[in-house]
Amino acid sequence: MNYRYANILPEYTLGTPGTYTIELNVRDPISRLELGYKVDMKDPEMAAALAANITKIELVDGSDVLHSLNGRQNQALVLYDRRCPTLNNGYLAVGESAYATMGIDFG
Which residue did the predictor score with more confidence, 93 or 79? Predict the structure, then answer.
């Protein structure tokens, strides 16, 4: 089976809490979107769980909401769909950095 990987967006620093919108203009079918989340933990509350820091991942097509979950719900759905956990890497301690992935599977 042929796989095609495309990097839609380079690394981006959000800075303060907020929302970042990504426009997807693709013609080929998409089977999976993989979102990477890297954090440098400066607050003890951030070390609870990486997925807890993501309040909403939403995929919208026009006025149709196709996917709307928080980070923990998203990782649970990926575990259910793929039968394996997503990547969570790093030390959950203040002053350390960590990386997590969130996925959206289609079909």
Answer: 79
Q: Residue 68: beta bridge partners?
A: 58
pTM of the model: 0.77
Res. 1: pLDDT tops 60: no
**How far are the Cα atoms of 14, 62, 92 from residue 45, in angstroms, in the given order?**
18, 35, 10
Place of tokens 């793929």: 82
What is d(CA 30, CA 105) in angstroms, rounded to the nearest whole number? 9
Cβ neighbors of 25 (< 8 A, separation 6 or more) are none
> What does the H/E/C string look like for 1-16?
CCCCCCCCCCCCCCCC
Q: How many CB atoms lie within 10 A of CB 88?
A: 15
